[in-house]
């Protein structure tokens, strides 16, 4: 059976959408619909999930969340976590990626060691770090004692809890950051380095004058991805402090607050409002990073 030219043209336009339809249906059901649903629930006062009822549509959920000490504390802790983990992990990853990029003997062993955490459960790794942080027999306090430092209650004292989370979080995202930076570093034309060595440039100058500028788009990429990931910090916090937000409930994060509002208080409107605020924070920070990237790109061209 043959089709008319008009039908063939119509089918050629529809055909790509037919191939994409399973993926689009999956995205609509499991991504787009939940996002829209969370946004609408955030405006429903006294929303009941089981009955599907609510008192009124207003901003009461947002007013409560923004004045709740737990949420404001979580927002502050999350912001501090992002401000420390993202730049520190990027700087460390640059250093190790540069070392792994050198053609030295046994570098494959070190690459495997650095990349192993990527295929390990965050919960399992968190439990190991909790043992390492143990005040009495943890290896971290044992190493510090060799320098005359007294034992620190990393996961039992509130003043050290955020630092403990930052150290673990930095270590946890290093493999991904190293992989991305190393893969791009290996694609840099060797001619740049050859010319720089002929001119007598030192390794440090080569790194900061050639490697870092050429890696700047990738550095911004990993910063954006890691910023989004760090704003959603939860899986690192949960195993480290026995399922609690810090030793004295002092280390709430935004995602932990969402869990607390939804699972413990059963206030789905509060949880939805907190989720929307988190989305807006990530969106604004990402836009700022993209704007900064654009500005620095223009300066580089000049």
Structure description:
By secondary structure, the protein is mainly α. Helix content is 73%, strand content 1%. It contains 12 helices and 2 strands. The chain has a two-stranded antiparallel sheet with strand order 1-2. It is globular, with a radius of gyration of 25 Å. The N and C termini lie far apart (62 Å).
List keywords for this structure.
single chain, mainly alpha, two-stranded antiparallel sheet
Set down the secondary structure blueprint.
Blueprint: H1 5-41, E1 44-45, E2 56-57, H2 60-67, H3 69-101, H4 107-115, H5 122-132, H6 139-145, H7 158-185, H8 190-198, H9 203-231, H10 237-240, H11 254-264, H12 268-301
Antiparallel strand pairs: 1-2
Helix pairs in contact: 1-12, 2-12, 3-7, 3-9, 3-11, 7-9, 9-12, 11-12
Shape annotation = globular
What is the topology, as strand order, of the major beta sheet?
1-2
Strand tally: 2
Low-confidence stretches: none
Q: How many individual helices?
A: 12
List the secondary-structure elements in sequence, H or E.
HEEHHHHHHHHHHH
Q: Helicity, in percent?
A: over 70%
Q: What gyration radius follows from the Cα positions, in whole Å?
A: 25 Å
Mean pLDDT: 87
**Secondary structure category:** mainly alpha
What distance lies between the first and last C-alpha atoms, to the nearest angstrom?
62 Å
Instruction: Determine the strand fraction and express it as a percent band.
Output: under 5%
Q: Report the biggest beta sheet as strand number plus sense, adding barrel if it closes.
A: 2 strands, antiparallel
